[in-house]
User: Fold this.
Amino acid sequence: MELYEGLITRRSIRIYKPDKIEYSQVEDIVKAGMYAPSAVNCQPWHFIIVDDRNVFQKIMDIHPYSKMLKDAQYAIVVLGDEKLQHGPGYWVVDCAAATQNILLAAHSMGIGSVWLGLHPREQRKQGIKELFNLSDHIHPFSIISLGYPGEEKEQPERFNKDRIHHNQW
Assistant:
C-alpha cells in the first residue's frame, strides 16, 4: 500500500476477527510510533502493550467507549512523560503524532485499529494511571486497540475546499 492511499483509506475498526497478530508485528507498530515527530526530538513517550484479557476488562470498566477490546488481540497504551518533554504541554502533541503513526502502521499491515481517547478526560486518565500504577510525571494519552478487521467501512468524502484558505482567512 502506498503511503498516500493508506492515509486516505484508514478507518476506525471496532469489530475484529479472532485471528492472532504476531507479537513482532505489534513491536513494529510501536516502533512506527517511536518514529513520529516530536518537539526538539525529545520523544516524551512510553508504550504499554496489553494482551491480558483481565486488563482489557479493567480498561473497559474505566473507558466507556472501549468495548471493542473484548475481541481485540492487543492494545497499545500511549503515555506522555513530563520529564522528557520539550516544555509544558508538548507531550500531548508529541503523543498525538505517535498515536497517528501507530494507527497508520497497523493499517499498512492489514490490522484494524481504533484510537481510544484518554486525554483530556481526567477521570479516564486517572483510572488508567491507577490500573498501571503510573508515576505522577507519566500521563495516559490514548489507547489503540488492534485486531484483524471483522468489518469493512465505506470510504467517506472528507475533502472540503471550503476549509482551505490562501494567504488570508
